[in-house]
Amino acid sequence: MAAFVGVVALIAGGFLFLLFKSPASVPSEMRVTDYAAEMAAGTLQKTSAATAPEPAEKVDLEGEFETFDGKPGHSEANWPNFRGADYSNIVNSAVPLADAWPESGPPQLWEVDLGEGYAGAVVWKGCVYVIDYDPAKEGDALRSFSIDDGKEIWRRFYHAPTKANHGMTRTVPAVNDDYIVSIGPRCHTLCVSRETGDFRWGIDMVADYGTEVPLWYTGQCPLLDGNTVVLAPGGKAFMIGVDCETGEVLWETPNPNGWKMSHSSIIPMTLLGKKTYVYMSVGGVVGVSAEEADRGTLLWETNEWTHSVISPSPIQIDDSRVFLTAGYGAGSMMIQLKEEGGKIVPQPVYQLDKTAFACEQQTPTFYQGHLFSILPKDAAALRGQFVCLDTDGKFVWASGKTNRFGLGPFLLANDRFYLLDDHGELTMCRASLKDYEIMAKAQVLHGHDAWGPMALVDGKLILRDSLKMICLDVSAP
Amino acid sequence: MAQLTKPPKRITRFTFLRNLMRGFVGTALGVVGGWSAFGARKKNTVWQIDPMKCVQCEHCSTSCVVSPSAVKCVQSYSICGYCQLCFGYFQPNAPELTSAAENQLCPTDAIERVFVEDPYWEYNIDEDKCIGCAKCVKPCETFGNASFYLQVRHDICVNCNNCSIAMQCPSDAWSRVPLDQPYMLKHQQDYPLQKGIGGVPRHGVPINAAEMELELAPKFELPLAPASKQ
């Protein structure tokens, strides 16, 4: 009987404990700038009355130049622009890549602190270049680092105060042997000599072309076609070509529709046998001639694909088809170009719902006749999953509900994808057309919003989160 | 041969009565304790929504015995990104970023959009207009910082014993919480919790009413720049 009473007391005690227990506390860590708190504390990165330029005031893009101890490193390969040399985000690495990693992940070669942002790096002849924002000095800085040790080589800074708005930088420079071109958060375009960092010229697209700075700042990455920089300012000109040597505007494509700059980037393609610059603006999609004879001439346009926020870039499928996608509920569309009466006419082939295929901040990869993307959070059951689709719009496979990613980048190298999630977990999976097959996984960054596009050169993978850039050795031991 | 079992204990009348009394007292204690606990539970707890479990199903706007619902959207200013394009405010692909009715997602015009200074905009909830439909909560959570979320407002809730919304809730987001901590603050860093890192449960943080009112008070001192409301 006494035992029975004891059991009753224990049950009652447990019942009362469960009834009145407080939920366990969870660790709190801010993901983005706490604007209100920083405003209250007076620490919010915003334009002060003393430093704010007048709206019409032109920014001095030559700015200041500093050199540091770093020396150019050694790299056989290059990563010259957004999505790599051929804009495919696919690299055939001559350096064999590791098929597995130690528990701690691939060895980290170096790390560099950056201002808050998502800008990715390019690599040319052992130098890593990235556009950064210096919150202390309130301006953009094009910075050069050694790929060997991450030591800074030089920095060109110009004063352009920018307020915190979900990060500052989000563009990837373009580089060739002679020049580097970058675009800052507020559409400031800078061209410098690659090796020395000498100022060549600058264009303020807002002041010069009436560009409307996209929501959350510029996402368009510059295109270098030979020694011509191709930009899509919107505003007074839809697209322009600028000579790298002189800064002279070589051609301008008119913008009668008043279409605006998006977060997308211009991608060069050969469509219906003609070299074409394709750009998804806020307003519509446009093909502009990239042929020397009529460069800058409008070839075709369509407003069948128009969304208020477009971050991915267009993807060439074949000689006549272009795949378009976006996030924020947009879904995807395949368009096909046809010649009719001497004109090129783009026509929608099919459209996919946001739950079938989309991409919010990155651009899908087209590989062996299939499209690969991480679906956004509004994709219902497929939200956050890595998905493979064929070009007829048919679902092939998804990574499964236990393998979800965020808005981070992904890159294909040899026979595997590298995928980085929001919080810096790097996954390596087989580039398979049959199924999702994971190879390795490791936490390589510990910050937030690891959304900057990756670059891979000689087995060195460059990644970043909102405040830090790292270089990993993913080569085979 | 050794005896393997003890002989049965002899129960005396006294032992029997003593055990009977112990049982009676124990049962009485259990009944009284349980009764007190249930009474105290009803008296000292209120209903609340765990914002980390809510799936924005819209039952909160249609199932409440109070009309309009005692559930309201709240705005955690410390989480908000103050975006010019707020996905919780604007219709998808809104033709213009103005507060014209055709651009707004809220069916009752319960969100006030106020210009702070370029590029910041503040979004305030008018609880008198809000019906708790969560149409703004879902896109804010999907595309934004998830600063909009639903909470039971205790100046309206009548604290039914069997809450009609709680019975409908498909995600087990409703529970009784202590009266002295009647609100649940949403975390924005839900991602590691979704992944179950460290086995930490995914739920909101209980806070008291004063803390909640502080959370729901606009932080910007308006206007910081020449005010304009579009």
Strand share of the residues of chain A?
35-45%
Contiguous helical run count of chain A? 3
Number of domains of chain B: 1
Mean pLDDT of chain A: 91
Basic shape of chain B? elongated
Spans where pLDDT lies below 50 across 5 or more residues of chain A: 16-32, 45-54
The dominant shape of chain A is globular
Mean pLDDT of chain B: 83
What are the secondary-structure elements of chain B, in order, as H or E? Answer: HEHEEEHEHEEHEH
Largest sheet of chain B: 2 strands, antiparallel
User: In which order are the strands of the major sheet of chain A placed?
Assistant: 1-7-6-5-4
* Structural class by secondary-structure content of chain A: mainly beta
Compute the CA-based radius of gyration of chain A.
24 Å
Q: How many DSSP helices of chain B?
A: 6
Could you give a short description of this structure?
Chain A has 477 residues and is mainly beta. In chain A, 6% of the residues lie in helices and 38% in strands.
Explain the layout of strands and helices.
The complex is a heterodimer of chains A (477) and B (230).
Chain A: H1 2-20, H2 35-41, E1 64-67, E2 90-91, E3 108-113, E4 122-124, E5 127-134, E6 139-146, E7 152-159, E8 174-175, E9 179-183, E10 188-193, E11 199-204, H3 205-209, E12 223-225, E13 228-231, E14 237-243, E15 249-254, E16 267-271, E17 274-280, E18 285-289, E19 298-302, E20 315-316, E21 321-326, E22 331-340, E23 343-352, E24 365-367, E25 370-374, E26 386-390, E27 395-398, E28 410-413, E29 416-420, E30 425-430, E31 438-443, E32 455-457, E33 460-464, E34 468-473
Parallel strand pairs in A: 2-28
Antiparallel strand pairs in A: 1-7, 3-34, 4-5, 5-6, 6-7, 8-9, 9-10, 10-11, 12-13, 13-14, 14-15, 16-17, 17-18, 18-19, 20-21, 21-22, 22-23, 24-25, 25-26, 26-27, 28-29, 29-30, 30-31, 32-33, 33-34
Chain B: H1 13-44, E1 45-49, H2 59-62, E2 71-75, E3 111-117, E4 120-125, H3 137-143, E5 148-152, H4 164-168, E6 174-178, E7 183-185, H5 190-195, E8 205-207, H6 209-215
Antiparallel strand pairs in B: 1-6, 2-5, 3-4, 7-8
